[in-house]
Amino acid sequence: MSDDAQPINLTNHFLIAMPGMEDGTFTRSVVYICEHSDRGALGLIINKPGGISLADLFERVDLPLARPDLGEQPVFHGGPLQTERGFVLHDPILAEGLPTDQSIYASTLTVPGGLEMTTSRDVLEAMSSGGGPRRVLITLGYSSWGEGQLESEIARNSWLTVDANADLVFDAPVEQRYDQALRLLGLESWMLSPDIGHA
Prior knowledge:
The chain is an alpha+beta fold. It is built from 5 helices and 10 strands. Strands 1, 2, 3, 4, 5, 6, 7, 8, 9 and 10 form a 10-stranded mixed beta sheet that branches.
């Protein structure tokens, strides 16, 4: 990359794994990028359900779940790092008197123009009493790339990128999220060659 090339910022974008992706964690995955800077990137896989439901998760953390709309929703495998830690992706919560980039929860990353990702227990406590964000996606674990790593993977045709769509994150059937993400680019999976990096 030449010195005058503009760095890419994929915050609030989807990464869509190309068919040739051999890393089992990321095969056919769609990753929501929560943060991307010159230091690296952080994201959550939104289409790989783990083996437990939200009802199971709340039982594990000794909280009731007073949200019948969420009980059967799967907890997702967000990535290979910190797989015992929960990450709650949700619609922004705007509170009266707080700046738009500040959350009501103790530990929240506000994604510019996008969603919020909360890692503090208070969001689960709000949900347990019937409140909290209306739409949520909870993962165990997250995905991360070091400085220049994601850009290098994109240059090798490992990933496609497209602006994120909150409805796809929360409302699309899980098994259709990969294909629906591709359609945001006007593509179908059969159009993509599994041979990456060989022009």
